[in-house]
Amino acid sequence: MVRLTAVFVGVVALLVGILGLITPVSVSPYRQVVSCGSAIAPDLSEARSLDDTSAANVPVAGEVVVDTDYTQLCRMELEDRRLWTITVAVVGALAMSAAGIQRVLASRKTPAR
Length: 113
Prior knowledge:
By secondary structure, this protein is mostly helical.
């Protein structure tokens, strides 16, 4: 029963990790959604175009203007996605491997009939 639970948890964790890697990533500063691609295939073209045409690159006298670096926000979000999805996938693979090793060891202990 424990082995079956470990395999189930491992499969679910592995699937969540893989799906997290291929799911699109986006950032939304100031309610403007910017697509960043996925953790496997990043696409920073939209973020770079917004960085190039940002109105905050023009100085305004007497006002504080914050220049949002969309490319850096996308890179940080992609890195965060990679960190947790790869970790979850590895934990899932390890859980499945441990269940498999436990099965092999258990079969060696039982005498042949």
